[in-house]
Amino acid sequence: MICYMPRIQVIEKLGLKSEESNVEPNPRGMDPTRVENPSKKIPPIDIHLTALFAAVEHGHTDKAKTILESTDVDVNGVNSDGLSPLDVAVLNNNKPLIKMLIGFGAQEGNEFSSGDSLLSHLRKLSCEADQRICDLTGTDARNQSLWQRRSKGLANLIRGFTQARPPDVPSLVAVDVIGSHTVNVRFREPESNDSPPTTKFKIEWSTDPDFKSLCGYRILLDPRQTECSIDEVAHGTRYYFRLCCGNIKGWGHPHPSTPAS
Questions:
Q1: Is the pLDDT score of 180 beyond 70?
Q2: Which of 77, 146, 246, 254 could be joined to 242 by an S-S link, Cβ 3.0–4.6 Å?
Q3: Where in this protein does the record put region Disordered (predicted)?
């Protein structure tokens, strides 16, 4: 969980603007007037992860790279909203930043079962932020201002999600038989520079050329991966394979393998 004030200090040290940040305005996003149990420990703050999210949220690729190179920060750490740095970069459609993060091993936060559940979660957080703004009107201008910043940041994420789309079809899907029960699937992400970013892959196989029923599937969350061995096939059975690219928005159209079976 990331607290607000240390994050603000990090943002200021990095020379970043804080008005676009979607961080929760106070520790764990709780009512600042609520009395906490003094015996209950607050989780330690990961300053490096805080700095990384600040750089990513503001689109500062060089500063994010410096943080990743000079600290032991977990590039796949998630913030209090359940998002990873890569999720935030994808929602902001910042392709240079996405490419850089992937080079350091970044993956989706994988905290949500679908794009729809993520959107519902973001909208819920946005409603909560707007309600806090109303509750603080005329009583606490400072905290109200912080919640307004958070509301604006969440609105940017929601807009980024609604404008996003899944990736195009992969440019290569090839299958090689390497054993009596094993095949190796090779693949490449879409070649077009206009394609939305790819952050994951899904391989499906079936004995039906129309894929009306699946024998199995494999989801690969490392976007750097270019091949995958599958040892779940029966000797002497004809299988058909296909692969699709995905991102936080969902899955693109599948591409059949070469050869087809």
A1: yes
A2: 254
A3: 19-39
Alpha-carbon span 3 to 10, nearest angstrom: 11
Does 261 map to a domain? no
Pair 104, 18 in one domain: yes
What is the rounded distance in angstroms from the CA atom of residue 153 to the CA atom of residue 143? 15
Q: How many CB atoms within 10 Å of residue 121?
A: 15
Q: Are 7 and 21 in contact (CB under 8 A)?
A: yes
- Residue 206's SS3 state is strand
Angle at CA 177, nearest 5°, toward 171 and 183?
70
Write down the pLDDT at residue 31.
45
Q: Name the amino acid, one letter, at 93.
A: N
Whether residues 27 and 62 fall in one domain? yes
Check whether residue 104 and residue 224 sit in a common domain. no
**pLDDT tens digits for range 137-173:** 989 899 999 999 999 999 999 999 999 999 999 999 9
Q: Token pair of 139, please?
A: 């009583």
Structural domain that includes position 184: 172-256
pLDDT at 3 over 90: no
Cα(241)–Cα(214) distance, rounded to whole angstroms?
Answer: 10
Evaluate whether residue 119 is within a structural domain: yes
Q: Please, what is the average pLDDT of the chain?
A: 86
The 10 Å Cβ neighbour count of residue 205 is: 23
